[in-house]
Amino acid sequence: MRISVSEAKGQLTDLVRRAEAGDEVILTRHGQAAVRLVPIHQPVDGASRRALMEKLRAAARPAAGPDAARSQDFLYGETGLPE
């Protein structure tokens, strides 16, 4: 989208929203491109967001530890009686 600086004065909020959504907004002065409005953070597409969420889920899973059913075996002897 190309719009003159004088027209953009009254529509700045809308232009910023459009730029944040990924639209290319170019402000012109005397018919020549002067500046481009771009978001600081590029919008994340669905595939990238999904990959990030899967990575976070995998990192949050606890590591496999010792089996709870065998965790107190050290308390008992070979006969099964307490030592």
**Radius of gyration, in angstroms, nearest whole number:** 30 Å
Q: How would the global form be characterised?
A: rod-shaped
On the 0-100 scale, what is the average pLDDT?
Answer: 85
Largest sheet: 3 strands, mixed
Helix count from the secondary structure assignment: 3
Strand segment tally? 3
How far the N terminus sits from the C terminus, by CA atoms, comes to: 81 Å
Give a brief rundown of this model.
This protein is an alpha+beta fold and 83 residues long. 34% of the residues lie in helices and 17% in strands. It has a domain at 2-37.
Question: What would your notes on this structure say?
Answer:
The chain is of the alpha+beta class and 83 residues long. It has a domain at 2-37. Helix content is 34%, strand content 17%. The protein is built from 3 helices and 3 strands, in the order βααββα. The protein has helices at 5-8, 12-20, 46-60; strands at residues 2-4, 25-29, 32-37. A 3-stranded mixed beta sheet has the order 1-2-3. β2 and β3 (32-37) form a beta hairpin. The longest helix is centred in the middle third of the chain and has 15 residues, at 46-60. The protein starts with a strand and ends in a 23-residue tail after the last helix. The model has no long low-confidence stretch (mean pLDDT 85).
Kindly list the characteristics that best describe this protein:
single chain; 83 residues; 3 helices; 3 strands; 17% strand; Antitoxin; YefM-like_sf
Summarize the helices and strands and which ones pair or pack:
Elements lengths: L1 E3 H4 L3 H9 L4 E5 L2 E6 L8 H15 L23
Parallel strand pairs: 1-2
Antiparallel strand pairs: 2-3
